Amino acid sequence: MMLLDKVLDPPSYGWTDRDGAFSKPTTKQLLREFLKRINIFQSKKNWLPLFSWARVLLLIPLLFLFIFNYFSVALLVAAFIYSMIIMGTHGTIWHHRYCTHKAYRFKNRFWRVLTQNLTISMIPEEIYAISHHVHHAKSDKPGDPYNANGGFLYCFLADVNHQPIAKDLSAEEYKQTVQLMAHTGVKANCYRKYQKWGSVVHPMRAISACLVNWLVWYGIFYLIGGHALACALFGAAAFWAIGVRTFNYEGHGKGKDKRKKGYDLNEKDMSINQLWPGFVAGEWHNNHHLYPSSARSGFLKHQVDLAWYYIKFLHFIGGVITYHDSKASFMKRYNGA
Ligand SMILES: [Zn+2]
Ligand SMILES: [Zn+2]
């Protein structure tokens, strides 16, 4: 069995039914699974998905403080730009193109850590990166952790229900899993600690790294614009973290074939190029499925790709030493399409 067939912890409703077809759970099953899998009293191995949602819940009060206490139009604009453009583009730069696809290489640790912490930290690297390999291997098929055929909630709750790693990996399988993230700088548990915590990252490391990130960013925002700006932008980060959980459903056509002939050139799955995620985060998702390891996904003139501009800029100043760029290959294909 290949690693990607078993690296994720299967939900209790399974990836497939008895006939091997996609198993679509009911809303009740999805919610029950969600509650079971964030219950750390049942198993402390559930800590990581709980931590992932706790980050959002902890910041919701700041969102309310912004709305009811500090609200101004200028801050609303700042919050909008921060959540939609800055957080979104950072997700593409760091979690997507670097942590999963290794689309470029940093010169050294400094640039990697700087890029990792360029925004308020919301999504654990492990939850995103490992499961995203599975998404590419099984797009829109059983086993895809955010299979759009499962419906909105199937994708929205995926970071708890489908994305955490399996708890019963052998020592060799665990070693291979760790390898998938070795370049990210996230320090991995030894096999014994993995058996205890059920994750690659140790909870103390993950929590302290997040805390340092939050304190530094709160301090910076406070110095610039007091508690008002800090609440606006931390609230914006929570808002983004909820919104981004809807992307995988929409990016694959909400379970329908919404691909446009001659525009969405990759026909192997249901991914589509959408204007909004493209403009704000460089997520031209059909292009990306065509060239997953490219550091650029916006290939056509109107396909703005802010994540690519950052990577290119870092390359210009020496922080990035190599990158893949599939534009030439795409254009050849596109013109022949
Ligand atoms: Zn996809
Ligand atoms: Zn990808």
From TrEMBL:
Its EC number is 1.14.19.-. It is a multi-pass membrane protein. It is found in: Membrane. It comes from the Bacteria. It is an enzyme of class 1 (oxidoreductase). The chain crosses the membrane at residues 47-68, 74-95, 214-242, 306-323. GO terms for molecular function: oxidoreductase activity. Belongs to the fatty acid desaturase type 2 family. Keywords: Fatty acid biosynthesis, Fatty acid metabolism, Iron, Lipid biosynthesis, Lipid metabolism, Membrane, Oxidoreductase, Transmembrane, Transmembrane helix. This is Fatty acid desaturase. Residues 76-312 form the Fatty acid desaturase domain.
